[in-house]
Design goal:
Layout lengths: L1 H15 L7 H10 L5 E4 L10 H9 L7 E4 L7 H19 L4 E6 L2 H11 L6 E7 L15 H6 L4 H6 L10 E6 L18 E4 L7 H4 L1 H11 L6
Parallel strand pairs: 1-2, 1-3, 3-4, 4-5, 5-6
């Protein structure tokens, strides 16, 4: 009888296994198997979405569907707070179009600021899985003193906009934050402006400001940050 009871208990356990909660690793595996999140690219000042072509082409070659790569263009002469509202609308559009639950946001230069405003102040942290800043003036750049208008004023070290943006937690919420900066970037001055408290930071090889968007090694590192399970 004991042998029969043992057999019955084992049979019951096997029958119940499909009903038990999946482990975190199993859930992660299913998430990865579903494919990478859509990527929303956010360009910098005096630029447009076409500047991401090299990186977007590499993502496509590595398995990202074309419809999951959004080379967004916006009016970069507006306040970064205004752009952040527009970015919120764009990300909602991408989520609706793709059916995804979250996006990854990859930014260059000033694009870091509007996207950070979105994450901190507009509920974006709940809709972004990974965030990337390439050559972002996250604590300001002296170069912005040579241009005018709202976004340039906001990029100047010590601006009211940056003081508010960097107050408290610089990397709020659950997104995985990462920054890349080059020792040869003459546009971001000082160079240590890029790094954020709470974000992984990488110092690149000697690249110019635009080179961080097109460098192969930087691309591979960005890809590993936003979706490490994807392989060529």
């Amino acid at each position: 009888m004991i042998k029969n009871l043992s057999w019955s208990a084992s049979t019951l356990l096997l029958a119940l296994l499909p009903l038990l909660p999946a482990s975190a690793s199993a859930a992660d595996d299913r998430h990865r198997a579903a494919g990478p999140d859509p990527v929303v690219f956010v360009h910098g000042w005096n630029s447009d979405g076409s500047t991401w072509q090299t990186m977007a082409d590499r993502f496509r070659a590595d398995g990202w569907p074309a419809g999951h790569l959004d080379q967004w263009t916006y009016n970069a002469n507006q306040s970064n707070a205004t752009v952040a509202v527009q970015l919120a609308e764009e990300i909602d559009r991408v989520l609706d179009a793709t059916g995804a639950g979250t996006v990854d946001v990859v930014t260059h230069s000033m694009g870091a600021l509007s996207s950070r405003y979105y994450l901190k102040n507009l509920g974006g942290a709940a809709k972004v899985d990974a965030w990337v800043s390439l050559a972002g003036p996250n604590h300001g750049t002296e170069t912005a003193r040579w241009c005018g208008g709202a976004p340039c004023i906001e990029m100047r070290p010590g601006s009211d906009f940056l003081a508010t943006l960097n107050s408290g937690d610089e990397t709020p919420g659950t997104p995985r934050y990462a920054t890349w900066g080059s020792p040869c970037d003459s546009v971001i001055n000082p160079a240590d402006s890029v790094a954020l408290d709470g974000a992984a930071h990488t110092t690149t090889a000697c690249l110019d400001h635009s080179g961080l968007r097109t460098d192969r090694r930087v691309y591979e590192e960005v890809k590993a940050h936003i979706h490490p399970s994807v392989r060529r």
